[in-house]
Write a structure and sequence with these properties.
heterodimer, A: 304 residues, 0% strand, B: 313 residues, mainly alpha, MetI-like fold, 2 domains, 12 helices, globular
Chain lengths: 304, 313
Amino acid sequence: MLLPKRFRKRVTARISPISIDECIPTRSESIWQRPDVRIAVIVLVVITLLAIFAPLVAPYDPDLQNFRNRNKPPTLDHLCGTDYYGRDVLSRVIYGARVSLAIGFLATAFAMLIGVTLGVSAGFLGGRLELVVMRFVDVMMAIPMIITGLLMVAALGSGFQTLIVAIGISMTPRLIRLARAPVLVIKQREYIQAARALGLPNRIIIFSHIIPQVVPPLIVIATLQVCHAIVIEASISFLGLGIQPPMSSWGGLLKEGLRNLPSAPWISLTAGVVLTITVIVLNILGDALRDSLDPRLRGRIRAQ
Amino acid sequence: MTKYILLRVVYLFLTAFAVLTIVFFALRVLPGDPVYAVLGGEAPPEIVEQTRHELGFDRPLYEQFAIYLSSFIQGDLGVSLQSKRPVAEMIAMMLPHTVLLALAAIATGLIIGVPLGVMAAVKRNGWFDSLSRIIGVSFIATPPFFVAIILLLVFGFWIGAFPIVGAGEWNQPWDILHALILPALALGIPKAAHMMRFTRSYMLEVLNEDYIRTARAKGLRERVVVFTHALKNALIPVVTILGNQLGQVIGGAVLIETVFTRPGMGRLVVEAISGRDFPVVQGTIVVFSFFVATSNMLVDLAYGLIDPRVRYR
């Protein structure tokens, strides 16, 4: 089939694997020069520090109840107001950051681990393994991620560790696809054939030739996945199936705030705004990192 | 083309079958006993055993699966463990609400997103473009359920212009529409940001093409160039992302329905999952994935209709 040249690229772009050439930076332009990236990094660092040093930073004990101070609007004493039990909302949001960030990053790491293992072995070994793994991925992709997450939580029970596993599993299919695609390209290279001709076992080829090339770009792509993980955690906790009270989480605060929405809107608003800022910031960073790795996209950015 | 469609339809059913298999076994292999969910934790052992037998949970797994599958093919999705109502009936009641919400959200996304994207591309680097980029970045990442909470608070509670609970009765179209506006906006606004970005970037690509220069050189009005020459081609890639978006919108509907206390598949599945209502979970997830897979297929087929240059293999 003969298509105009520019179109050929676009039609195949949806099915062709990411070529590794496109993932290797060819120009050393720092994404630091973009102001949005700088702001995003600063905000992310601030949120992370707040989460790490929550006991030092939070103005109150997040679980301290004060029934004389229920559903009070923001004042100088309680910058973001208090909730139904008189607990300080700001402190709860700061402590909630620990849960959200930890689950976001750990779930992504978990998904990376399984995704890379299965994706790389499927791509490199091919054959029946690849067929089974990729069909499985296709099927899993037909179920919305949040539903997979909910199903896993229902099966494993709710709690910090199980949430990491549940969210990690629901993110895995995507990462398997992302990990397999470049392997298909790399395994055609001459040095892989050379390594095979030398009689190196698959294990060595995978660990010394494939993984070092596939994983660094994937880690960058994974930053974009962290914000998905955080949103899914918040969603599951919002539905009441995730982190259970009295432990504080952004999703849980949003749920609690929804129940008291007309009388105490500051609960939902504070948690929601912080969640949204975190996700936006991670999104900006992930986008920028991906652009800097993909010269094709970089051209488009420059054109803008 | 016919062969391709047939293949896709076969594939669609295979996907649904695979989802069903995975969900069925996942629910049973993983811990958690539905019998206790039905009876509560305190039930005496002989009643537990009796209920287990009545529900068929004491049979071997493959036998349970065979029984479930044969009735599934006949359209019988089993009976809810909690409400004792047929699952198919529950889904039939809930599905229209969710489908309506998802379609309304996609429509909102297109109606808001595409024109803004075109404007941003045409007035590239102007103030509108910068503003649209900032709005785009902010809204793309905003979780729809937070947008929903804000809309509910402002337009539901403070202004009081829209209902805060429910979805209306089917025989009152006005009520349905009235209750649909806020949820559709909540789901649609983040989608609009997405579509705006896509439209803008593809419009920019197309506006650089030679045939656009030719069209301008012919002396065509800018409006004609932009809308009939450029937009038509720029929309092709936008259509391809619709399938993907529909899947996400359906996932998002789960939360939106909770915020607005609307009936729908999302509420159904959440309640079923927390109550370990296996038949309802199985039924809803299969319908969900069937819906997502169908929309992906329709989009792929539409791609060929919109763009005659695309050939199917």
